[in-house]
Amino acid sequence: MWERLRPWIFPVSCLGCGAPHVALCAACAPLPADRQTERVANVAVRAAGSYEGVFRQAIVALKGGERAYLEPFAALLADLIAAGVPLIPLPTSRRRQAARGFDQAVELARRVAALHGSVCCEVLVKRGIAQRGLNRRDRLEAGGRFRLRTGAVLPELAIVIDDVVTTGATLADGIATLRAAGVAVIGGAVLARTPPGRNSRR
User: Considering the domain 28-193 in this protein, what is its CATH number?
Assistant: First the structure.
C-alpha cells in the first residue's frame, strides 16, 4: 500500500530534466552507446554507463535511500543480461542496509529477475569494512568480503549484480566465493563503471 501511496505523497520527477512521474527518464539515462564492458576475474562485466554526471547523482541518491530509482535502474540492468539466468546480488553490509532501509543490489536484482522471469538468489552475506573512501591499492588488497548464507541453495550458474564497479575488487571477491562453492559465474552487470583516476582516498 505504501508503495502505491508514495508517488502521491512524494511526487517524483526526473533528476536530469524534471520530467514528471519518473526518477530518471529515458532521455537522461545512459544510452546503449554508453555501455561498457570489462573483465573481472575472467568474467565479462557490463555497465550501463559511466559513473559521472546526472547518472552518478542518481546512483548516489539511490545509495542514500531513494527508492524511486530502483525501477529505471532495473530496466537498464535488464537490457545488459540474458533472460532466464539466475541472478546473484552482491549485498551491502548490514549497517549500510539499515541506514538506507534496503539493500540496493538485492532490490535491483529482484526487479531484474521479475522483468526477465528468472530468479534472484540471495545467497551471499557481506562482511568486512566498507569500500567507500579506500584508494585503489587498499580496495584490491582487501579480501574476504563475502560468505555464503547459511542453508543457501546455490544455482549451477549465475550472473552477479552490483551497483558500481571501481577496481573490480568487490566483484572479484564475490565471484571467487561463488566459484569456490561450485557456482559457474557466466557474467556480471552493474549500473556504472567509475572513470579511471576517480578512485582516491578522501
Answer: 3.40.50
4-60 pLDDT, tens per residue? 555 545 578 899 998 998 899 999 999 999 999 999 999 999 999 999 999 999 999
Separation of alpha carbons 87 and 183, rounded Å = 11
Domain boundaries, the chain: 28-193
The set of residues, in sequence order, having a beta carbon less than 8 Å from that of 91 and lying 6+ positions away, is 97, 103, 105, 106, 122, 124, 125, 126, 146
Question: pTM to 2 decimals?
Answer: 0.85
What distance in Å separates the CA atoms of residue 59 and residue 75, rounded to the nearest whole number?
14
Contact 177, 64 (CB under 8 A): no
Q: Which residues lie below 8 Å from residue 54, measured CB to CB, with a gap of 6+?
A: 15, 16, 24, 28
